Amino acid sequence: MTITAPVDGDPIDPAWAQLITDAVNTLNADARYRAAYTTAGVEGSVVFTGIPTTLKTIRVSATCRGDFAGAATELMIRINGSSSGVYRHNSMFSQNGGAVNQGSAFAQTSARVCVIPGATATAGVFAGAHLVINGWDSPHATHLSMESHGGYLDAAGNQIVYTGSQAALITGPYSSITFLPVANSFIAGCEFLLEGLP
């Protein structure tokens, strides 16, 4: 069957009208969950609560910077507000195009998502970070798996590219995510966009 888009003045093919109706119904039935937050000033953390526990995957895009007194700091994550030693992370990063470095940590109070600029980085430089959390609907008894990548380019020479994997050994259901710098606070203009897929 061929469906032809109508041209001005032509009668509308019923098959074309049905195609448009089906597309609109599909968009209206989109069950994705979305939330966003932008820091208005200095804030110690960004917390998303009430995230549906039935979502299978969470995706987060962020652009952020901290006020730690250094060129770089770290973006961290906690699940369900837990600050107990249940987090693990493993990462690879390169600074200024140099050799790839590896780092890992276990039994941590939060998991590292990305390296972000600190207070002495060039003014106006923010990191970009992407995070995927798989198994948000608790298909595993006590293991939430994550992966991330990001970095930033500072004209002063502190250029970072980062990729990592994280785990939270926490029993579900999961309903909240906290982002925080490893030290101090976020500055104004940090933006976090969260999307959940059913």
CATH class: Mainly Beta
Number of strands: 12
Mean pLDDT: 91
Taken together, the total number of domains comes to: 1
Number of H- or I-type helical stretches: 1
Radius of gyration: 21 Å
Strand order across the largest sheet = 1-12-3-8-9-10-5-6
Beta-strand share of residues: 35-45%
CATH architecture: Sandwich
Secondary structural class? mainly beta
Fraction of residues in H or I helices: under 10%
Low-confidence stretches: none
What's the helix-strand series? Answer: HEEEEEEEEEEEE
- In angstroms, what separates the terminal alpha carbons? 33 Å
Largest sheet: 8 strands, antiparallel
Description of the molecule:
This protein is mostly beta strands and 198 residues long. It has a single domain, classed as Jelly Rolls (Sandwich). The chain contains one helix and twelve strands; from the N terminus they run H-E-E-E-E-E-E-E-E-E-E-E-E. The protein has one helix at 14-28; strands spanning 33-38, 46-48, 57-64, 72-79, 87-95, 101-108, 111-117, 127-134, 144-152, 160-168, 177-181, 191-197. It is globular, with a radius of gyration of 21 Å.
